[in-house]
Protein: Alpha/beta hydrolase
Organism: Sessilibacter corallicola
Amino acid sequence: MTVKKVTFKSFGVDLLGNLYLPENFDESKRYKAIVGASPFPQVKEQVLATYGPEMAKRGFVFLGFDYLGMGDSPSLPGEFKQSRYMFRLLENTWDAVSYLGTLPYVEEILGLGICQGGSIISSAAVTDHRIKKIATVSGMMAADAFQWTDKNIVNQMIATANASTQKIYETGEPDFTAPFGLNDEQSKEEYVALSPFPEAGDSYDYYGRDGVKGPKTVANFTNLHIGDQAMQSLFSLCEHYADKIVQPTLVIYGTNASTAICSTAFIDKLTNDPTVLGLPEFGHVDFYYKPEAVKVSADAVAEFFNQ
């Protein structure tokens, strides 16, 4: 496997990515290419750096990249890093598809989204039929939290985000916050004691200060984000437009994960006869990095994309 550093234009700036190429890659041949969509709040060195090599080993070209304002990709002039806005993520994804379409060795473009990436790739595919098939893993396609959590909590999130938006506008300075209550300094014990999320320990094991892909391990990653995030992340097309998706769709999720409803609510609205792989033995975060879960999902994605 070879990893090639690449850039492509989106919103007039260069987004940075890694292009994973199969063993014995030959530019004169034609390959199926996958555009990867990452979980919130990740950068390309995290889940995409897990699935990139796995899909390359299975014969695919795989593009993992940093969205606008994330990781190694710049923010727009006058804006701030760590601003992950849903509609910009879709346009970044469309531009990633356009970039793959310029490569002479790409014969077909496919989409793979993990966690929030499931929402991104599903939403992007509604009107981008250059993406021929899509697959989601631990997908948060019901990104509208009103569907799966207490409305009072959501409205509190919105109120906090509204205040942050006003502060940013008035001061011209970023207002950083920890969207899930996890910062870059907490111990696991501190975070789990404070967190209301049932899988807080699993999340910490991945994202926390001492996690396998936390800020000490991934230099361009932080758990902090611009405080207006809730005004952006609650928007998603895919759960409302699921019946408009025409591409063959694979949905992989842990049936006992607290986020399972974000896959099942999406599945229920699909009209394209989706392929569904529900696995009770794996939790949401297991599919990010645990070898046994990644192997199952990568094998299933490869088989589906090769059909």
Summary: The chain has one domain: 2-144+235-306.
